[in-house]
Design brief:
Jelly Rolls, alpha+beta, single chain, 4-stranded antiparallel β-sheet
Amino acid sequence: METLEEVIVEHPFFRGLRAEYVTLIARCAGNVRFAPSQYLFHEGEIADRFFLVRRGLVSLEIFVPGRGPVSIQTVGEQEVIGWSWMVRPYRWRYTARALEQTRAVAFDASCMRRKCDANHDLGYEMMLRFAGIISYRLQATRLQFMDIYSLNG
């Protein structure tokens, strides 16, 4: 059975993270499971955690007036869900719904923010890693809207 520290250090998102940081953030983590169709969180709610997906698939969705929920991306194993915990006002910018049985490691946002505030080097490392996720999700949203509104021809 793997410890949370082992899971974290082996996850691509945290690859190369200093061992002392892994120990710190593991104290903010716990294993979670989601059944198919179960929501991890809803757009507009308080962003109180983020997830490392270990197994399963999760749909990231936004609400489009006149259309309802629209999937902007499907996230699978070895990926990360949730960046809203880092950016005030700490509200989810999208909804996440499990498409199949999903196992993940959930990190408590308040705990993580305290660790990052107390250790700015850790905070900077986390910001660098999440900046890539934010950029990737914005691009996925842009491409989805181009498809929805047929802006490409």
